[in-house]
Known about the structure:
Elements: H1 9-20, E1 28-35, E2 38-45, H2 48-54, E3 59-65, H3 74-91, E4 100-104, H4 115-120, H5 127-132, E5 144-147, H6 152-155, H7 159-170, E6 174-182, E7 192-196, H8 215-218, E8 222-232, H9 233-251, H10 256-263, H11 267-278, E9 286-287, H12 292-311, H13 320-323
Parallel strand pairs: 4-5, 4-6, 6-8
Antiparallel strand pairs: 1-2, 2-3, 3-7, 7-8, 8-9
Helix pairs in contact: 3-12, 9-10, 9-11
Amino acid sequence: MNRKRTDLAVEAHELCRQTQKDSHVQGVNVETESLKETKVTRVHVQNEDGERSIGKPKGSYITIEIPTFVHKKQETFENTITVLADEIRRLIPISENDGVLVVGLGNWQITADSLGPKVVSSILVTRHMFELLPEEIEEGVRPVCAISPGVLGLTGIETSEIIKGVVQRVKPALVIAVDSLAARRLGRVSTTIQLADTGITPGAGIGNKRQGLTQEQLGVPVIALGVPTVVDAATMANDTIDLIIDHLMEQTKNDAKFYEMLKNINREEKYALIKEVQGVELVDLVVTPKEVDDIIEDVSEIIANAINIALHKGITIQDLNKYSD
């Protein structure tokens, strides 16, 4: 199976279905639900068959499709935070008082890769208060610490080595890793949030794999959370051609032969052809929307608020302004 670059399990499942021309993928169960203006898709990879089918480790992957311009309407913004917080809370396999380490992966010097560091800057950190000011701790607040370790090119140290050292010293019961992701469809850039209980391999979606952050590596459960901010150039070209094909099919329904020819185009083979003719110079090119600055600001605020609410039982959506800078 020729895989397009993507970090999203829901896209890997779609790709597998298209390749197999079968609605059922062995070893994978998918559930879809509409909640408060969002669409939630839960992909459960159940066994080794599922791992082979979609190329994702066994576990649960929750995809939340959020409304466009979610930040423009306060009610929509708060609804999205509430849905995401509920999904995070369901994945947390620890008790109410256990400590959590939030890790912001990525390069803060590159806007499209700065989601993790941006989220960490808005996390409500409380671990130091438990040690220094225990009497000031409110009911329903747990010990939380956060770190944004940078990337190998900035530090000269593998991110996983830094996180492993912090985990061994701080001893959290859970790690939440936030990172920018890659998608295989332009429409999912900035409008999709993925959670997974399988950990994360930074850079995997754009073919730049680093050492993974998993329970096996760190010794504690790892929840991965991210938003697609880039697609590769071949995906952009492929989606454009698909739109042209769909438009031509709509316009040529009365021309049976031409319609059937368009209908029978193998879209995965077309993608492979695009990659081939791109040439070596463009094979690793990735693109991001021009308004990526605003996208990072909006989605990082949603994610940080949702994590704060999910981790601290004593904090609700009404308390966000109280704890914001």
